[in-house]
Amino acid sequence: MKFAESNVLQGLPKQFFANLVKKVNAKIDTGADVINLGQGNPDQPTPDFIVKAMQEQTAVPDNHKYSQFRGDPALKRAAADFYKREYGVELNPDKEIAILGGSKIGLVELPFAILNPGDTMLLPDPGYPDYLSGVALAQVDLSLMRLKEKNNFMPDYHDLEPQIVKKAKLMYLNYPNNPTGAVATPDFFERTVAFANQNQIGVVHDFAYGAIGFDGKKPISFLQTPGAKEVGIETYTFSKSYNMAGWRIGFAAGNADMIEAINLLQDHLFVSVFPAMQKAAITALNSDQHTVRDLVALYEKRRNQFFTAARSIGWEPYHSGGSFYAWMPVPEGYTSESFADLLLEKAAVAVAPGNGFGDGGEGFVRVGLLIDEPRFTEACQRIKKLGLF
User: Fold this and answer.
1) Digit-coded pLDDT (tens) for 267-293
2) What separation in angstroms does the CA of 347 have from each of 295, 351, 385?
């Protein structure tokens, strides 16, 4: 027998990152020394104290049983304490926090937890491509919010068509931003809460890069904004702050109704995350965060090194204030994809074409700050030889 994929699966977007990896690997297979600036995978190891906690907890027999439904209460308490300590935000661990198998799960599952087919949601453009997976799986309608450099890549809600705003029921934001590295301001989040209240639109803030801010400025949490919990939630991941990308653990915090919807859906999809991993996550949240500060310092050093190297060849970056990305303009006469293909083919330098993050990313490429600093200089010197700048 042959089984066809469902209409829903056939409607899923193409996996942008899988195609990018395929191109890079094909170049590597030719024997080329590829400098990979296209990846978004943290290159540093998980801190030893977290690994040790995981090893110890894996040996505890009780942790081999099924997880508690809706997560370990101790982890939810640790998440609430973390938000209180880091952001001054009060959270009820029982009603305002949901444990996730990585924040991507929460971001993809939320549309079909609180929306119905045909409802409309707003997504940033450019934005994280996997947001589109939730749109397809939930069979909801999509409208894009263009992020423009003149607005520091924050949406201007006045630009949205009134009929779209009237239909919209959910909106996603992401700061520090992937792919641009832009950071949100308190004023912007205040406008967001007012806009959401006025139009009855739920807000989901993807805070994946929340720990990574530069120039002495710590990124702000959406939940710090007065009234934020009344209109939305924030998702947080251990992947970036603690280099735990492969561990797949995170949490959502905020509006109790949204949190309950996530929990109810997860009751039916999976019990929860491996108990030992939840214990290790508690260790991470309760630590003094010195490893996070060291990591941020490393990324800032890399950003500065890359900016210096790029400017030395006449390639001027957007001044990213957070995340571990640089957002770079494409030279005249090229599209994002043709420029990325040229760099890979002629210079063996891989970057992520901006149009892979939406039409709003056309004219840019994303550079990951995830290699050793000397390779940034080498990459820019290779690009210089192409005579584009």
Assistant:
1) 998 888 999 999 999 999 999 999 999
2) 29, 11, 8
